[in-house]
Structures are given as C-alpha cells and as structure tokens.
C-alpha cells in the first residue's frame, strides 16, 4: 500500500515542488493550502491525478484528515519579507498555532512530521558561515521578528513534542531557495530582479548591495528535504547552497543573464536585513549524504526561462 503524506503550503513555491516529488516517488499526496500567498496554478497539473487531493484549508484552524497518515510536511507560511510584513499576525499564527495543530495531528495519526524552518532563525548572524549550533541574532520586536520568532517557536514546540511525546520529528533550516513557480511580485530578490529586467525597469539594490546571500536551486532543496524526512535524524539540518554572492554582484549577473541594458539603482536597506548569509552544510553532507548539484548559472537559466514564459498580464500584475 502506498504511503500517505500531507503537505501544507502545497500551492506555494516549495510545497508544489514537494507535491511533484512525492507523487513521482509513488506516495499518495494530500495538499493543503489557504492560498494566502500561493496559487492553484502551481498544482493544477496534479488535478485529476488519482494520487493527489487538494484541501482548501487554513491550518491555523483545527486540521482534520480522514484515514491513515504516514508523513506530514509543514510548509505553510508566508515566506517573503513583503508577505510577512503585510500579514504579520497570520505569519505568527501559522508558525505557532498552525504548527501546534499539525503536531497534534501527527501525534493522533502516529505520523512523522517535518517542519520548514529557515536560515532566518540565525537572524543577522554573527557567526559565518552559519552552523546548526549557532543560536542566532534575532531582533524579537523588529518587523522581521514576526517571521523569525514564529519559526524559532516552531522549532521549540517541535522539539518539545519530540521529547515529551516521543513524536518522530524533522527540522529543515532552509536557506534562500529559488526556481520556477516563485511568485513574480513576492518581493524576493530573484523574482524582483528578473521581473524588473523583463519589464525594462532598473534593478533595485537595497542598501549598498554589499550584503550577501547564497542561493539554492529548488531541485537540490527538494532532494535534501526528501532525504531528511526519510532519515532518522531529529536535530535541525541546514539545507542550502554555500556559494555566496553580494547582492550588487548578483544584480550584475542578472543583467548579463537577461541581456538587458538596465541600470542598478539603490534603495534604502530594509530594517534588520541580514548582512551575510551562507550555510555550513557539513551536517547535511555527513548525515544525509547530500550536497547541491545545480550551480547558480544553470539554475538561474531555468528560472529565467520560466519567468519569460509568463503572460504580459502576469508580468505586470502588481499584487497577489
Ligand atoms: P510560498 O509563499 O510560495 O508558499 C507558502 C504557502 O503556504 C502558500 O501557498 C500559502 O498560501 C500557504 N499558507 C500560508 N499560510 C497558510 C495557512 N495559514 N494555512 C494554509 N496554507 C497557508 O513560500 P515558499 O517559498 O514556498 O515557502 C514555503 C515554506 O518554506 C515556508 O514555511 C517558508 O518559511 C519556508 N522557507 C522557504 C525559503 C525559500 O527560500 N523559499 C527559505 C526558508 C524557509
Ligand atoms: N533585495 C534587493 N532588491 C530587491 C529585493 C531584495 O536588493 O528588489 C535584497 C534584500 O535587501 C536582501 C537580499 O536582496 O538583502 C535578499 O532578499 P530576499 O527578500 O530575497 O530574501 P531574504 O532577505 O529573506 O534573504
């Protein structure tokens, strides 16, 4: 009998790729989403597949799923700074109440649960690159605190269920991941820069562009999550690509990739924007035998092709 897995945030960027992966691996997939930042377009190709069902549901309300459940992936949460600044309370609720509901469901069904944490638990890190042992540097009351602290609480309650109830839990700390199906106007740097290049606008670099990020292609991220779920390791694991770049250099790379002659313009740096970010992936290599395979040039080419295929209406849509 095939294994049944519940994936929350299924209509989002990562959730939809995870649905594809688990369907391809022969699982029965229940996708759940309230569509607050996601889009059914990301999973419409799965409608009609006998191994896929979709539940339109807000996971901050009691979650009920009939029948057996073997695994839960909790990926529901606004994930871009623009989104979580626009819906701060929902962000806190999905990380806290939503996670509590799903842990309760996992306990009831005797299912293994993996929760999507983030490099943001390290805040504006004082340790570089970030290892899982680092406790982080988060401004609890700053505007980003709603996301960072929700995710930190999510990790704590997950470990409490693991220790107190003996629940099988997994925690992935995801570093900036990109690829097809990102929302063009979610404000994250890759859709922002590509969208600007495609519309013939200048690329907006925040601050002086000396801040760094390390971008992981979605297929690598999904492979890391898959391996972690099936492992027997319950402490957090960083999954990301350690290849680091400044945002200013990245803007130049996009200008070359898109073969446009756009300029870079500078805008104020958002409050608490981390100055550097790079995963230490020693743990993922040792425990999961995982490391990224897709380099930025290759991943960005695929991502650019995806955004180029959008309709002019989609390209010019300003809000979700
Ligand atoms: P996304 O916005 O594309 O997807 C999130 C999905 O969750 C959306 O479809 C949204 O509608 C859904 N959702 C939000 N609140 C919900 C609720 N209360 N009930 C049901 N559904 C809800 O974002 P993403 O990039 O795919 O991120 C997915 C997860 O991965 C998030 O938990 C995010 O924090 C985490 N993550 C992502 C990245 C990244 O680089 N993409 C980095 C770190 C962590
Ligand atoms: N950024 C930028 N211009 C934009 C959007 C983002 O310079 O139009 C910067 C942002 O300030 C941050 C980096 O790009 O330093 C990555 O931002 P993103 O929102 O993608 O991810 P996060 O800050 O959550 O890592």
Automatic annotation (TrEMBL):
Its cofactor is NAD(+). It is an enzyme of class 4 (lyase). CDD domains: UGD_SDR_e (cd05230). The keyword NAD applies. It comes from Mesonia mobilis. Its main location: Golgi. InterPro entries: NAD(P)-bd_dom, NAD(P)-bd_dom_sf, UXS-like. Its EC number is 4.1.1.35. It is a single-pass type II membrane protein. Residues 6-301 form the NAD(P)-binding domain. Belongs to the NAD(P)-dependent epimerase/dehydratase family. UDP-glucuronic acid decarboxylase subfamily. This is UDP-glucuronate decarboxylase. Pathway: Nucleotide-sugar biosynthesis; UDP-alpha-D-xylose biosynthesis; UDP-alpha-D-xylose from UDP-alpha-D-glucuronate: step 1/1. It is found in: Golgi apparatus, Golgi stack membrane. Keywords: Decarboxylase, Golgi apparatus, Lyase, Membrane, NAD, Signal-anchor, Transmembrane, Transmembrane helix.
